[in-house]
Amino acid sequence: MDNIFIALGSNLNGPVEQLNQALKHLAGLPQTELVKHSAFYRNRPLGTVVQPDYVNAVVWIRSMLAPLDLLDKLQEIEQRQGRERNGVRWGARPIDLDILLYGDRQIKHPRLTVPHREMLNRDFVMIPLAEIAPPGLALSGAGLVEVLAAQFDSRALVRQAG
């Protein structure tokens, strides 16, 4: 089974409840084991669209699903939880599930890039990832997750009850 890390985010329709519901769906995926998830963190949205703050987390799963099969399952969960893909980049959404890491694979596909291309620039990804990552987890060509996460000011994130 591959170790896979997925970012979760929500800023509509009860974000904490949305993340908890997504975790239940992830735990129920076939050939998949939910190992653990980070704390939930509230943070400001990206971009210029005026919208509510986000609640974000990272989950560690082990799965035998192929990368694109897992992506399809994640998009099914998003759709089930009310996500509509309207083309607005960084717009408000009830749930967003992004594959960050899929074992040590590097994937370049029109539908999926792994490692996630923006993860190193996002405190709301790197800090929760470092919280749950096994010691010594390294990103190819970038360094250890805990070292990369330490470069962010964690005060920008507010820990939420989950």
In short:
The chain is an alpha+beta fold. The chain contains 4 helices and 10 strands. The model has no long low-confidence stretch (mean pLDDT 91).
Annotated CATH topology:
Alpha-Beta Plaits
The level 1 CATH classification is Alpha Beta
Q: Can you give the helix content as a percent range? A: 25-40%
What is the architecture at the second tier of CATH? Answer: 2-Layer Sandwich
Q: Quick one: biggest sheet?
A: 6 strands, antiparallel
How big a fraction of the residues is strand? Answer: 25-35%
What is the approximate shape?
A: globular
Q: Can you give a write-up of this model?
A:
With 162 residues, this protein is an alpha+beta fold. It has a single domain, classed as Alpha-Beta Plaits (2-Layer Sandwich). Helix content is 26%, strand content 30%. Strands 1, 2, 3, 4, 5 and 10 form a 6-stranded antiparallel beta sheet that branches. It has a two-stranded antiparallel sheet with strand order 6-7. A two-stranded antiparallel sheet has the order 8-9. A hairpin with a 3-residue loop joins strand 8 and strand 9 (143-144). The protein starts with a strand and ends with a strand. The model has no long low-confidence stretch (mean pLDDT 91).
